[in-house]
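User: Second chain of the day. Same drill as before.
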Amino acid sequence: MSESVIVVENLVKRYKELIALDHFNLDIKQGEIFGLLGPNGSGKTTAINCILALLNYDKGNVQVFGEDMKPDSYEQKSKIGVVMQNVAVFDELTVYDNIDFFCGLYIKDKKLRKQYVEEAIEFVDLADYKKFYPKKLSGGLLRRLNIACGIAHKPTLIFMDEPTVAVDPQSRNKILEGIQELNRHGATIVYTSHYMEEVEQICTRIAIIDKGKNLAMGTTDELKKMIKKNETISIELLDLPETISEQIKALPHVYDMTYTDNLLKVFYSGGKHNLIRLLDFLKQEDISFGRVYSERPTLNDVFLEITGTELRD
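Assistant: Same format as last time:
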């Protein structure tokens, strides 16, 4: 079992009457890409700021690299990279000088720093934009610059708070590939996003957070097993008599169904060969149908069932 890089125990953070973190717990292992998933106001960014000792909290304990994390834990912080949601670069500095400045906060050796800056520029594919100022960059290129500033000093723990917000699909893919590459080189990554498909694509484990609480944690497959929905079968039908609806509801493993705009959706909590059984039933009842498809639960289904709300972009 890998060592824990981050351990958060019973963290409580209040803003007057608002409880931003409510006995929040987290355990992130070395080498993970760990996803924090939650709606706006769920406590994701607050949790990150408390872990980084950028915010005081009311109760609880935070350990990073096996030691208590405090505002003056400079040795621990030198091993951490942060890419926050809001782009944080200097408009007065070029791409190269921005990366050099942030790298210089940790790497004092000029020769080594130059090497690291060049490697960061190559990593985010900004070699053609070294002399550009941030205002001349597109949203996607600006995000890549933001990432380069956060990872140039080669941290072993990287926080990425929604790094793909408002970027084009090509830049988004580039960023996701870069995150996986950083992880392959040994970095542990804490990743927040509103995009379910991103989290499902790159994260080894995921925590679902809402109202300051960690509601569920596990791999994508483990999270999907926590919910009732196991399979959804959708069938196009011109008509569905009420008597047939009642019989469908009585089929094995069916826990719910809907029929709207000529589309029948049947929800299953388990079982095998559900599709074959349902189609056989419709044929037996002489009911004609059109397109048919079966879907396994998505991360969005998990989020909806666990939190009671949909995660919106």
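The mean pLDDT is 92.

User: Great, on to the next one.
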